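Q: What changes when FE2/S2 (inorganic) cluster is included in the input?
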Amino acid sequence: MSTCEMLDLGLPGVVADGLQVAATVLLNEPMATNTWRMRLGSPELAERMRPGQFFMARPVGLSDPLLGRPFALFDTQMDESGRPVSIDFGYVVVGKLTRWLSQCAIGTQVSVWGPLGNGFGPPAGNHLAIVAGGIGQTPFLPVIRQLLGLQTYGAAPSPAWPKPARISFCYGARSQSYLAGVADFELPGVDVRLATDDGTRGHRGYVTEVLDELLASADLPTSVFCCGPEGMMRATARRCRDAGVPCWVSLETPMACGFGACFSCVTPVRQPQGDWDYRRVCVEGPVFRAEDLVWEQGI
Ligand SMILES: Cc1cc2nc3c(=O)[nH]c(=O)nc-3n(C[C@H](O)[C@H](O)[C@H](O)COP(=O)(O)OP(=O)(O)OC[C@H]3O[C@@H](n4cnc5c(N)ncnc54)[C@H](O)[C@@H]3O)c2cc1C
Ligand code: FES
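A: The predicted holo structure follows.
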């Protein structure tokens, strides 16, 4: 199903259990307008990846595109014995690599390396609100499945995440046809709240306005996890700061290597002594406390 070798790059910051794998496309189907779900057969990756981590992907045997592109874990599948055997990710077609992915037939080999990045930790308190925009919803399915006790992730057994009393999943897209994988999130214990710019499904307007309703309610979120377009994450970070609610964001900064070697992905992060320094989104992120980030246009 896949050929695999350990990543042995001899570089600081490389994830200890990172692998490079030639994985086989098992499924590649439309999820929403211009959005696809791909399943890659790779037990090695499937059993290692944790919620919020990502992997890099590029074609096997082609030199264009030369650099890999990052994608977040969306789901894993098990065999009859309960062993993770494959991973799903969702992707929007925006350029060279994603166009190539959308044309991949079943059986195509894709070079992937991971797991990469820090991933999400367990949220604080008893009400997690997730705010997702565009394709930024994909990292949150494993977060939710782990919180609900439906699945555990990662090679080393990690401590169980305490189940919050409430999970609010706020997800926005420009129109109904761009909402991808909503049914996957409709699990018992998850309050799914949708928003579309044109009002074709859910709240008419921005997903941050759905968050506003939660922040104004008696059952205030105790943690917010967020991923999506930069402007949406900035607006979410601002609302959380003003409401005094801790917020973690998963950045989608373009990356060249994904494992800490090229410094193409750096972002300014506040340091304990009060100044700031650059940190690599691929190693020290992609998940950061929103208040630790120095947002380019401020919040
Ligand atoms: C940690 C992480 C996880 C990600 N997870 C996913 C995922 O699960 N699904 C998904 O669809 N995408 C995800 N992305 C974004 C994805 O990596 C890019 O869409 C992808 O690199 C585009 O590759 P391409 O060759 O098709 O486009 P390119 O030819 O590289 O670019 C096409 C156009 O898109 C712009 N672009 C490329 N990357 C980005 C970006 N990150 N932000 C804004 N503009 C960009 C380029 O400037 C260019 O205009 C993730 C990014 C990161 C950092
Ligand atoms: S992408 Fe190369 S250091 Fe982060």
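Observations recorded in class: The radius of gyration is 18 Å.
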